[in-house]
Amino acid sequence: MSINQEQRDKIASGQGFIAALDQSGGSTPKALKLYGIDESAYSGDAEMFALVHQMRERIVTSPAFTGERVVGAILFERTLDDRFAGEEAAQYLWNTKQVVPFLKIDKGLEEEANGVQLLKPIPGLAELLAKAKAKGVFGTKERSVIKGNNAQGIAAVLDQQFELGKQVLDAGLVPIIEPEVDIKAADKAQIEATMKQGLLERLDKVDAATPVILKLTLPSVDGFFQELVDHPSVLKVVALSGGYSRDEANAKLARNPGIIASFSRALTEGLSAQQSDAEFNEVLDATIESIYRASIA
After folding, report:
1. Domains of the chain from N-terminus onward
2. pTM, whole model, 2 decimals?
3. How does residue 58 score in pLDDT terms, banded at 50, 70 and 90?
4. 215 classed as catalytic
5. Mind giving me the DSSP string for 245-276?
6. Which residue is catalytic, options 97, 215, 236, 252?
7. For this structure, is 110 an active site residue?
């Protein structure tokens, strides 16, 4: 069995969750502040990214972080060239922790139009995908945002996501297609109905031999995404925390069987640079256990 098949089976079985460790330039200061590192503690991007890498390394090298409860982890592009415990990041995740590595490939969002934010262009995409594949990455993540029930906007998001997903599949990687629905949207349930219909139409054109992963906001109606969970062209449906507290996100997740977590902020909630290693590992262990339990409910 190739590693790729092993990794695919691990994601498909879903006995755990995917850790989103891919905060990028725009969200890094907020992530560091929540971790107890104020903006006054660093100057410039290089120092900021070095500090956030230390935070990520502390998480993934913790004894609480293993493939028994964490099936995958999404890395930021800079992390791909970095190391965890002296080993290349993606290799460390799989070889040492049995955690399947993914890479965030999007470059952020366009300004809102037609109730949505499309992906910005991704220059050098072919080279990035080839590099990720060579470094042992299994899949990619690309996030758009839907803020209103605008059929034209939602179709544009899904068309762009599936077009990019095809490029990722052609490069031998598995795309995490992420059309995030804003949890504050007044018509969230209606957006989800329009989006689900659009997803099903596009998934029917995807070869079941090369399935995709969907990363979705937890639905307003429990079990609403079951058709997506059961679709033959979907390897796994994962959920983002989307601004819900960890407890709220876990409770919602547990009411949607077959969907597993892919949390970012909800994973790092409660962790602090000021904690001793013992304290840090204890908090992280409890966090991982709670998200794991919700994911396998």
Report:
1. 3-295 (3.20.20.70)
2. 0.96
3. very high
4. yes
5. -HHHHHHHHHTSTTEEE--SHHHHTT--TTS-
6. 215
7. no
